[in-house]
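Write out structure tokens for AB hydrolase-1 domain-containing protein.
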Amino acid sequence: MASVLVVLVLAVASLVNKGRASPTSGRQCVQLEVPVVVNTSAIHWLQKKVDSTIDVVDWVDDMTTWSSPNTTSRILGQITVKDTFKISGQLCVPAKGPRSDTLQLATHGVGFDKRYWDVEIRSDQYSYVDSVLAEGYSIFTYDRLGTGASSKPDAYDVVSTGVQVEILRQLTILARSGKLASASKKVGGSSNLSSYKPTKIVQVGHSLGSVIIIGLLTADGASSDGAILTGFLYNSQIGSASVAPWGFEYAKENDPKKFGDRGSGYIVQATKANTQLVFLKKGAFEPALLDYAWEVRQPNSVGEFISLGTVLGQPAPAFKGPVQFFIGEKDYGFCGGDCNHTYNVTALKELYPASSALSVHLQPGTGHGLTLSTNATAGYKVIFNFLHGSGL
């Protein structure tokens, strides 16, 4: 069995190396350690402690049983989160590009880190970063708090949706000021991007990342010139979304070597089958991409799940840019497996009354993991065409 696992790991590593053999021409990237100062209030929640996989199952039971306390009744009060967090990010700017002064600031969702946007297997077909650069835009991707190489603080109240919104707001302010690179520690890559200053910023999110952007648009709508909300859609089936299909386990127990730096309250999908169920639709993905998704999987905090609803359903009257909801037609998590005929565009427009343009796109036959699906680049073209049509 061990030899089989070794072969599989080597096979994935080989595919990764091949995928980067011919990077996008003119790809200039710098890897950064961004110090993000946060001083905000957060909710203190009534939650079950999660210190083992047995606890995780009990937590899932508590979160999904119909007679369990609702979210509002779990609020115990407010706390102040005042700290400087290390956020791992990558800034990429095309060597030549008519839109390089427009920065796409990308926030990933549950189960991944910033590698979600920069798939290393057949990057010409799957990497959103490469496609953005080829289109002439610049892009900043980062590991959300609690994931990847970013700080991993308390998983109950600190690594929560509201705090993630504030981190995104601070990153946006840094980027807008032109200090994103110069105020950060360079840990790799190009040395000539320290003065990069965009004139426009488009927020791009996936899943929880889109929820975080929704929170930003409500809290500080004027900070963004546009928003692409992938892997999320307000719709009639959104209530069916549940933590149960993830098959979560305690991260440190699931893989002590990979997730040994995660403490209490950090959970991760247990098997490759769970990853497929949540992210991919049979017939719309290559098996190598499922292997890749499993290899780069990341834990999340229990606090992010309980706090999801705190930023949803609120209007963003100050946001004047274009917004696109872009979701897989067969998204299992947010539409119960079929997004057709589940949404109301008029209701969506009421949330963004000053938006210059609003659209909904269902990517045909695709599941929740948009960058991992076989028609990824076709989807990217839809996004770019929307931005072009909106003057971005």
